Amino acid sequence: MAATTLMAGKTVLITGGTSGIGMATALGLAMMGATLIITGRDRDRTEMAARQIRAAGAGGGQVEVFVGDLASQAEVRRLANDVLSSFPRVDVLINNVGGSWNTRHLTTDGLEHTLALNHLAPFLLTNLLLDRLMESSPARVVTVASGAHAHGRIAFDDLQGERSYSQRAYGQSKLANVLFTYELARRLQAGKVTANALHPGVVNTSFGADDPGMLQRLLVPVIKPFMKTPAQGAATSVYLASSSDLEGVTGRYFANGKPKKSSKGSYDQAAAARLWQVSADLVGLTVTV
Question: Among 255, 243, 251, 287, which residue's Cα sits nearest to residue 269?
Fold first, then answer.
């Protein structure tokens, strides 16, 4: 990709920007001149990623790093505070960080890990940064969901898999991403901040490698040659973050750089409103948009 100045003067926060789709997204936007904030759990890896992104930058190559586990609500709040105190504007928030676990784990907050990292972290972070995004308008919230949302169901009676846990928790969390995006778009009717979700495709990364299920162990080696590269997987995130064609476009789901219908369940406005309230309770937000 040739370097441009399309994103010059724009500040973009990308969660999980040290590898895979997140790193490729950061590299793509750096080449357009964006100032970047990336997050990662390991300081050495995060700093190494920042050096690579700076080297690719079309402008000054400005990259700031935040080290922390966003499955922890305290870490999400610390990130938000650091960003608000250090950056007068945030033009794009890309909720990219996520994971999948074959076995049930709890976070430091006592919450099921998949739900906490994949849904509650972006829900909390977006709400904490929303005023700054609105001050920076026109601004964008881009959330990396997955085609797996189509197989998800929001189990309000067992949201954290206490009675029954399986890798269906991932599908539930990705459906939550889409429901959250649509509900956020409805609540931000003025259009100063747009909210869109995307499916990156099946990408060749280390996603889920920490705790893979049997199906993943068997299937991934077979389909690996047909998977997208991280750069290909990041293309839709980069497009949603940067394209002038998407000014004012909100409440949509994209795949391969094009708008696409999401699952029938993702358009359930009552479920989206209920999920919003449940999520606000779980993260301790009493006032949200």
Answer: 251
Average pLDDT along the chain: 89
Instruction: Give 247's DSSP letter.
Output: T
Confidence at 241, pLDDT banded by 50, 70, 90: very high
pLDDT of residue 208: 45
Q: Which residues contact 218 (CB under 8 A, 6 or more apart)?
A: none
Distance CA 7, CA 119 (A): 27
Rounded to two decimals, what is the model's pTM?
0.91
Task: Report the C-alpha gap between 123 and 117 in whole angstroms.
Answer: 10
Q: What is the CATH number of the domain that holds 106?
A: 3.40.50.720
**Which range of residues forms the domain containing residue 190?**
11-283
Give the C-alpha distances (Å, rounded to integers) separating 134 from 79, 126, 128, 138, 232: 18, 11, 12, 7, 30
Domain count of the fold of the chain: 1
User: Would residue 6 count as lying in a domain?
Assistant: no
In contact, 66 and 85? CB cutoff 8 Å: no
* Known catalytic membership, residue 170: yes
